[in-house]
Specification:
175 residues; Aminopeptidase; alpha+beta
Length: 175
């Protein structure tokens, strides 16, 4: 049976969430802090400057992850907010997968695959026939996840200065 945008695979649940809810906001902060700190530690041997972190978190609210052209999904693990995935339409047939994140203590328990499957269903519901995404070279766990879930590396679809790998996947249902 194909996955649906509202998922229930105890102890996981995945459902749509407003991008500006307290839980979504807290997870966005955790996600951005982790990926920013990883980049700065790798390239400059330090964590993100706190002022820069606050500016960037405030500048990227996630409003584009709202209907009618986007959707943010929130995963709960045993009832506790644990992760997110977002989709937004780039055009009438292409959606972008973004903000895929799980709190460290919930990783390795199947939540990432559930989030991505729910995001794919949300993209289909928005009319997308293809999903694209970008990621960095140091985010090896993300690249492994996307490959395992059927995403293939593609040519760049954007000019994000931090993107180093681009992936795509057809959202056509297999019969």
């Amino acid at each position: 049976m194909p996955p649906t945008p509202t998922r229930d695979s105890a102890p996981w649940t995945v459902a749509p969430e407003p991008y500006d809810s307290p839980a979504a906001t807290a997870l966005w902060r955790a996600y951005y802090t982790e990926v920013s700190d990883r980049w700065y530690l790798l390239h400059e041997g330090r964590r993100t400057d706190p002022d820069e972190l606050e500016r960037e978190i405030a500048a990227h609210t996630g409003a584009e992850l709202s209907p009618p052209t986007g959707q943010l999904l929130l995963a709960h693990y045993d009832g506790t907010p644990a992760g997110t995935a977002g989709v937004r339409l780039l055009d009438a047939s292409t959606a972008e997968l973004t903000r895929v994140f799980l709190r460290e203590e919930t990783r390795g328990r199947g939540g990432a695959a559930l989030l991505v499957a729910a995001a794919e269903d949300a993209a289909r519901a928005l009319g997308a026939r293809r999903m694209v995404l970008d990621t960095r070279g140091d985010l090896v766990e993300a690249r492994a996840l996307y490959t395992r879930l059927g995403y293939a590396e593609t040519e760049p679809h954007n000019d994000d200065p931090y993107a180093e790998h681009w992936f795509g996947k057809s959202l056509a249902r297999e019969s």
